[in-house]
Amino acid sequence: MADHRAKALEYHEHPTPGKVSIKPTKPFTTAKDLSLAYTPGVAEPVREIHQNPENAYRFTNKGNLVGVVTDGSAVLGLGDVGALAGKPVMEGKAVLFKRFANIDVFDIEISAPSTEAFIETVANIAPTFGAINLEDIAAPKCFVVEERLRERLDIPVFHDDQHGTAVIVCAGLINALAIQGKRLQDAMIVILGAGAAGIATTRLLIAMGSKRENIILVDRRGVVHTGRTDVNIYKQAYAIDTPARTLSEALLGSDVFIGVSGPNLLSPEMLATMADRPIVFALSNPVPEIMPDVAMAARDDLILATGRSDFPNQVNNSLCFPFVFRGALNARAKRFDEKILIAAVHALAELAKEPVPKEVLDAYDLNELSFGKDYILPKQFDPRLVERIPPKVEEAVKQSSASFQLIL
Description:
By secondary structure, this protein is of the alpha/beta class. The chain has 2 domains: about 60-155, 3-Layer(aba) Sandwich (Rossmann fold), CATH 3.40.50.10380; about 160-408, Rossmann fold (3-Layer(aba) Sandwich). Helix content is about 40%, strand content about 10%. It has 17 helices and 10 strands. The strands form 2 sheets. A 6-stranded mixed sheet has the order 7-6-5-8-9-10, sandwiched between helices. Helix 13 (about 290-300) links the parallel strand 9 and strand 10 (about 305).
């Protein structure tokens, strides 16, 4: 771990601090170039945009520029480290956007004294961008921020910790259920972690056909049931009438465990009480809710996924957000709604069933890889992702209404 820490710090510091930079997209080597890029030539696109704001998409990079915005209140597994300390993660998001979908990013770290001030800041800088990616903002603040910005802005706003996670989880889950011979509408699901990712995943699962009464949400104090009075309105929306009060009780006979919580919270004894052919998504990073070797020793009939790249079935947001944004930008979407998210879910799920190209095998040093218990989602470096997902998103944008439909 000490060696890895040193390498990570070296990577971020040298030869140039950070992970991103800006480069011109037009020639800029002569006096003529200068006269076009700046004064007097730059006045012409200014006039065009002043006459019609849509011309910003013709004459600036707005249509390919995403603002990745954070307050640093829920960074990775590190918690509330503050806006500035969150910058390396936001730069990392920028690299992923560019590498996988050729989208440019400005990372914006905001130290705001209140939720209102944060919202105002993002709203005031929004004209710069074609879309906003909210990142690493703690719940329940993240729900308020996203809702308010979606109401105010005419560009898509997407909180990746919510919807990116939900899309990937749902894509992996429908494939895992098919392999295990189960159906989403029948599956009994336990979700450990009732923050941004847990609630968004619950919402999307219901939109896709899961029964609300079949999903038990569990937070730090136990099952989110209708008798509790200590939960916020976002959790309360998914409270169900159940006798279960603890994670152990919730897991009895369940088909699916989805962990978006913390390390080592699922014990082998709990896993043993789940139904035949269970599915376990232990997504806490870097230490999952249960380690794969421990889980496999307890159950040899399960499908297991984690958030880590060193185990099969990595569930990672980078499979989603670059390509969903690429499609939204291409279509000049004004909003994200559940039709768009579900389109991405199915595109991802279907791609995993296709033969894996050699270049993907080479990237992961594998001889073979095929749809099954150890391969339920495509790999991050699969070049087909950018070919398949954006067109499905574009199609969904065209079919979709202008508002993001919440299931309450």
